[in-house]
Structures are given as structure tokens and as C-alpha cells.
Amino acid sequence: MALQPQPAFTVDASVGMPVGQSSSRIALPGTPASDTVVRIANMGTAPVAVALGNNSVVATNQNLVVLAGQVQYLAINSNTYLAAICCGGNNSTLNISTGN
To which CATH superfamily is domain 14-99 assigned? Predict the structure, then answer.
């Protein structure tokens, strides 16, 4: 999963995702086939590990970690789902946006 530096970002669609102590996944919002980037904003107080993939993707604590209050940009490529899991004892919430 390559980090994608993003000086400008035009949002196609966004969705909120509650994240807990077990891996959960959500379909990327908008039109992932024509979008190139997903922006992941951790709105909670716990770090969250994320992974992009298909409808069976599972996140583990060894995946890319988005710290509380931080934002990461990832290239979508052929991925259509995002999986996430909290790395700490608290739950968290992600804001997931796709676009270019």
C-alpha cells in the first residue's frame, strides 16, 4: 500500500466508519473505478490500522496506522474496500473520502 502525497484533493464521496477492536470493512464510497485516491481521516482518539483490498480484506495491527486526529492519502488502484481495526483500547471513527 503506497502512501500518496496529495497537495490538492477533490472529493467524489465520503462516508463515516465506526472502528472497534475487531476488523471491519466498508465499500469505498463514490466511484472507485474512476477515483484515484482515498483520504482517511481518523476522527477519534485511538490509532487505527487500515488496509485496502477487495470484499474480503481484513485489517491487522501490522497494516498502515492512522494516528488519532491524522489524515492519510492512499492510491486506490483496483481496491474497492477498506478494512480497519483499532490499535488501542478505545473505539474510533474514520471519515473516508474518495476522489482525485
Answer: Jelly Rolls (2.60.120.10)
